[in-house]
């Protein structure tokens, strides 16, 4: 019981770090999962500004009948100037997801987002 605050702090630190990583995977993508959506999200840079965009699945007006089991976000910039992806709402175990994409200052971003489910 004495170590509970340390364990909780370590868990929160790992969660926050993983939630903002450049290449992110949430959930588990199993052999029987199919791809529900694939999106390529590109945003150009603006001088001395941070550019952001939210990705929503499913699109407005469309209903998803399948559960999301895993999400993979891949940053296409490999030179260290890419952006960050953060899971805002939904995700694995839900039927919807909102991912916030954010660039570094004075840079753009280029992400491939794959949503899997069954």
From TrEMBL:
PANTHER family referenced in this protein's UniProt entry, alphabetically: GEO11136P1-RELATED
The UniProt record lists the keyword Signal: yes
InterPro entries membership: MBF2 (IPR031734)
Transmembrane segments annotated in the record for this chain: none
One family name in Pfam for this protein: MBF2
Protein name: Salivary secreted peptide
Signal peptide: 1-21
Entry keywords, A to Z: Signal
Organism: Hermetia illucens
